[in-house]
Amino acid sequence: MADLQTAAPAAKGTKPRAKKHAFRLDMTPMVDLAFLLLTFFMLTTTFSKPTVMEVAMPAKGSETSAVPASKALTLLLGKDSRIQYFFGENPGKNTSAVHSTTFAANGLRKLLLQFRQKAGGMVLIKATDEASYQSMVDALDEMNITDTRKYALVDLDQADRNLLATYR
Where are the beta strands (DSSP E) in the chain? Predict the structure, then answer.
């Protein structure tokens, strides 16, 4: 509440002075209202839930299905969101069999949609040391978008390192 305090009246026989009014505002109700509103909005706000991608991992000791190397598509994730890929087995020093693409819609997605037409094909995703975490997430997103069911995250072996060294 607001209070108005008046000054004491002037003594007798003196000239009357103008009354000075001191104004005092009680801030307690406004602070209470602010905290009630803050509490209300904190409790009614929905926080963004983290999005999680499910990756189906095989059970330990389960039987694995062998996929011939000729039906594999190997993606080598590199720096600057670049992807080198080849079909089948590692071509060794034959760099003409290695192709390059990006994460654009007409890049990896188009490649995966074409590869999906192959019956029994499997995608092997291998990340180099220069690849960013975002590149791996983008590659997994593309697997989900194109509905590619058979893919595996594989470590980069020495033959792949040698292939990348000769490709550059």
Answer: 2-6, 21-25, 72-77, 83-87, 99-101, 122-127, 151-153
Q: Are 166 and 93 in contact (CB under 8 A)?
A: yes
pLDDT for the residue numbered 30: 92
Q: Cβ neighbours of residue 1 under 8 Å, at least 6 residues apart?
A: 26
Which helix (H) or strand (E) element contains residue 19? none
Instruction: Tell me, yes or no, if the pTM score tops 0.85.
Output: no
Distance CA 102, CA 95 (A): 18
Cβ neighbour number for residue 131 with a 10 Å cutoff: 21
Q: What is the pLDDT of residues 42-75, one digit of tens each?
A: 888 887 777 776 766 667 766 666 667 778 888 8
State whether residue 67 is helix, strand or coil. Answer: coil
DSSP 106: I
Strands (E), 53-142: 72-77, 83-87, 99-101, 122-127
